[in-house]
Write a structure and sequence with these properties.
About 45% of the residues lie in helices and about 20% in strands. With about 140 residues, the chain is α+β, with helices and mostly antiparallel strands. The protein folds into two domains: about 45 residues, no CATH class; about 55 residues. The chain has a three-stranded antiparallel β-sheet. It has a three-stranded antiparallel β-sheet with strand order 4-6-5. The radius of gyration is 33 Å and the shape is elongated. The N and C termini lie far apart (about 95 Å). The model has no long low-confidence stretch (mean pLDDT about 75).
Amino acid sequence: MYLYLLPVSNQTRNNSKYLTIIFYKMSTIIVTTPDELRAIVSEAVSGILPKQTSQPQIDTISLNDTLELLHEHGYTTSRAKMYKLTSTGTIPCKTYGKKLVFSRKEVLTWAENQTKPKHDSSEVSLTLARSARRKK
């Protein structure tokens, strides 16, 4: 591929008044302006490169944001309970100065691990076995 810039009338190169002539495989000639060439190249490059997703979320969140996050995911917890969980080291957290800071991923993983299936067959059978022993 060969690229030639030819001036249009007496305009300067700084004003981008050049025609761009592209010889592709010496069989096709494309005549375009620099702005059109930028648009063509931008369209071609955007088709090849993966789409940029939105900004990644920051992983560290405050106590209030943690309470909102847990509530959004169905794990409603009070502020007092959160303080108790942090003081006992039950919930993963860090301190920044005197403020509690939580990791979004760690909190959601912790909350998921705290849940139990509604009907755990092993727990039901264990409860029945204990009940049977008491009746004897």
